[in-house]
Specification:
A two-stranded antiparallel ribbon has the order 1-2. The protein folds into two domains: about 70 residues, Arc Repressor Mutant, subunit A; about 150 residues, GntR ligand-binding domain-like (Four Helix Bundle (Hemerythrin (Met), subunit A)), CATH 1.20.120. The protein is mainly α. The longest helix has 22 residues. It has twelve helices and two strands. β1 and β2 form a beta hairpin. It starts with a helix and ends in a 16-residue tail after the last helix. α8 packs antiparallel against α9.
Length: about 250
């Protein structure tokens, strides 16, 4: 596992060292919790300075790939997208156009996963969803913001779909939405339509009508896209097309 001599002179040497360490993990079938060789051995095997190895290790730790255990050494961390998604959420706070793209991804995921849960929600999940819609309606009627109920309605659906990545991306969207400095994006100016959309989505899911739930969800996202348009951003080209919807 030696390093090409030409790489040693590169100002981006530590990036090459990162790649070699990741390759070592793959080639040796290491998994979360497995130990890597000591730093001195990595330095010798890679043919680079200890400082280059340390820089590469720090970068891989920030990505959630490695972890240093004091007094024990360097270990592979169990795989997690959390560090990457945390960085994505932070970056999107400064890129308003990317919020629109994230919304587009979110719509495709949520609409696409609805058939997986249509007619299969447990009594406990249905009770929770009905309670969220009821509280959302009550808040809207009092002129209060029902954003938390809105958020957990969608989160409960993604939990029922059993797709952890979709759930994490949904969380990223809400983190960005709730922290954005553009309050036109963060505040739902049509809360009455929002809870009614949720009610229609839930009713379709409860009766096992996947296509109906998808149409109701697509209509719900159309309202969100209107809010984005009024904030001066460009929503995607058009609503999600549902099979059989024309």
């Amino acid at each position: 596992m030696s390093l090409d001599p030409g790489l040693a002179a590169s100002p981006l040497l530590y990036r090459s060292v990162q790649d070699r360490i990741k390759r070592y993990i793959v080639e040796h079938d290491l998994e979360g919790g497995d130990a890597l060789p000591p730093e001195t051995q990595l330095t010798r095997d890679l043919g680079v300075s200890r400082s280059s190895v340390r820089e590469a290790v720090k970068a891989l730790e920030s990505l959630g790939i490695l972890e240093t255990r004091p007094g024990k050494g360097l270990y592979v961390r169990p795989f997690s997208l959390d560090p990457i998604l945390d960085n994505l959420a932070y970056s999107l706070l400064f890129d308003r156009d990317s919020i629109v793209e994230l919304l587009d991804v979110r719509e495709q995921l949520e609409v696409g996963l609805l058939p997986r849960i249509a007619g299969r929600l447990t009594p406990a999940q249905l009770e929770l969803l009905h309670g969220l819609v009821r509280r959302q309606r009550e808040k809207a009627e009092r002129g209060e913001s029902p954003l938390e109920e809105d958020r957990f309605f969608h989160r409960t659906l993604m939990e029922a779909a059993g797709n952890r990545l979709a759930l994490k991306l949904l969380d990223v969207f809400w983190v960005v939405l709730l922290r954005t400095r553009d309050r036109r994006l963060a505040v739902d100016d049509a809360p009455q339509r929002s809870w009614r959309n949720h009610e229609q989505i839930l009713a379709a899911l409860e009766r096992g009508d996947a296509a109906g739930a998808q149409r109701a969800m697509a209509a719900h996202f159309t309202d969100i896209e209107d809010r984005i348009r009024r904030a001066g951003l460009r929503p995607h080209a058009g609503p999600t097309q549902i099979a059989g919807s024309g």
